[in-house]
Specification:
Length: 132
């Protein structure tokens, strides 16, 4: 069964790039263009991984993470921030806000592939334990 990834991103260029790359790596993708639409998509689909931008209209990535982690059926889905916010404090805030990982923009195809594979294998390891 194909791995399903939800991409929440308001910038069409970034969304198209991530969609293109993830599909070329063999994953299925769906997308939403703001946090509220992302939350609805997450509730109605079964995803193995959710990637989200931080700066978005209607609901930003932090609030999206907060609401997602408050949903019993979604709290365990790995959630990864994809953002150009690069300061150390931003990274710490992201990891303190419920995100399971962080990928920096601009997206570099080779590094992106390795990061996604690593996040998915962490999730597979986490399935057998109950530490979260
Ligand atoms: Mn954005």
């Amino acid at each position: 069964m194909s791995v399903r990834i939800l991409i929440v991103e308001d910038n069409a260029t970034n969304l198209d790039l991530m969609t293109y790359l993830l599909r070329s790596f063999g994953y299925s993708t769906s997308s939403a263009q703001d946090g509220l639409a992302g939350l609805e998509a997450a509730k109605t689909g079964q995803y193995d991984l959710i990637l989200t931008d931080i700066l978005m209209p209607r609901l930003d990535g932090f609030e999206f993470a907060h609401r997602l982690k408050g949903e019993p059926g979604l709290a365990r889905t790995p959630l990864v921030a994809v953002t150009a916010l690069a300061m150390t404090g931003d990274r710490e805030r992201i990891l303190a806000s419920g995100f399971d990982g962080y990928i920096s923009k601009p997206i570099e195809p080779q590094a992106f592939k390795a990061q996604i594979e690593s996040l998915l294998s962490e999730r597979d390891r986490g399935k057998s334990s109950d530490h979260r």
